[in-house]
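Let us work through a complete example step by step.
Step 1: write down the sequence.
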Amino acid sequence: TLDRFNYDSYRQELKLAGLGNLAYTLRDADRIGYTFFYARNAENTYMLRQGEDYEDNELIGNNSVTHIYTLQNHQLNGHHEFGKQWDLNWSGSYSKTSSEEPDRRQVMFEKAGSSLELFDLNKQENMRYFGSLNEEEWVGDLRSSYRYGDNNLIRMGATYKDKSRTFRSTRFYYDVSRFNPEIEDIYQTSGFMGYDNIANGDIAIIRDQQPKDQYDAGHSIYAGFIDAEYYPTANFLVNIGVRYEYSHQWVNYATDGGEAKRNEVNCHDFFPAMNLKYTVNDANSLRFSFSRTVTRPSFIEMAPFLYQESYGAAMIRGNAELKNGYNYNIDLRYERFDQQNSNNMFSITGYAKILEDPIERTQTLSGGAAVHSFQNADTGVAAGVEVEFRRELFRDFRVGANASYMYTNVQLPEGGAYTNAQRSLQGASPYLVNADISYAPKFKNDTQLTATLLYNLQGPRIHAVGISGLGDVKQEDLHTLDFVATYKLNDHWNFKLQMTDLLNQDIVFRQEVKDGRKLEVERYGRGTTFELGFSYTL
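Step 2: predict the structure and record it as tokens.
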């Protein structure tokens, strides 16, 4: 065991959002609209950590983190009809997002008998961190459809997307090796970590801003598509199409030694898709689909920036050598709908996927701490079955459930550092279950109560793939139970009660070690959340 910490975490959130929409109809067949959306979410988190690190130091950690997320989005769209056969739809949007850590603070204390002293193993335990991430995105979309016959149509269109990101961070390390204050209260650090002790030289501050602590990234996509919906017979739908994409993804970063690097993923791809639906009768139908899709590395997976939120916690580092993963998907689905009651349905789906170069989360060790990164596997397969049903047992009382079982297997590249040469896909649970019970009676004067109980079961899954002799880190089964109730008093007033995670089951991660034992490496409880709210509609 390298690090063992227990922690309590407290969080405050403030969420603000605003939405504006303006639409204008030029004539019955022409509409233009503009939408503006803004959101700002701020989180203040305090974490108290106690435990031992990999050198058996008995420590207490005092961590405060502020995250501020903002989003603003402008959308302009239009719809135009030319007779009964042609229509044209266009849209464009600009988005700007940011994620700020304006002042993350960490102070580590070491127990020395019955007293405390500041921990100064390598001058990086007591620190302040400032990080800023900004992202802009432009999107343009143009598509048109032509209708012929009673139900047949042809669609075609083009899409442009351009996203860019900048990330910058700075750390300030507090050198307290010459400073040994008397510590009585770990929560009031300004008394002994304040400016006076910095000015008199008891504490030295080291500003650390290196090229490796920043990166720039971007992604551009140019795409065009054409597809058709055709009914050879009245009860048989054939939908077939193809999409072409040119994707240019890049990241500029610096190595740990400060050398500037650039990595690019440039791809020309065709993505065919086919959907077939055969309607046996008014109640029963069969669907079959085939498609080729892509899984691209996200910027955080691709940028080799080392991120650690608190001492002893897992670190995350991207991998600039990642490439796209591709998926070949096949689905066969049977559906049955009750003609007497549209709330009643049953379906069963069989599906299979072939995964080419899937992206997986891995782990290794660096300086005594776990480091999570990302890597392409060679190939993989996934296959399973899903069953779903919904039924109204009596008036206003409905039940529903869906359950799926999935088999996955990943083949790994030869000569790699993987511990297990063959295993299930990282992040995939072999079984999932969702169920709900809903009661929604209506009363006089348009008042209505809606109460829903939601259950979810997520099967065990690999959280991080072990390499270099380390076993896989697996998350155990997780059961959750939520309750949501809304009461519509009239056309203006609505009241809401929400209770989340009533079971409050711990989330547990275990890792297999070389002697076959499975050791617990992390456990935490999120707690049960209760929310009361109301809304007023003008």
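Step 3: interpret the result. The chain has a mean pLDDT of 90.
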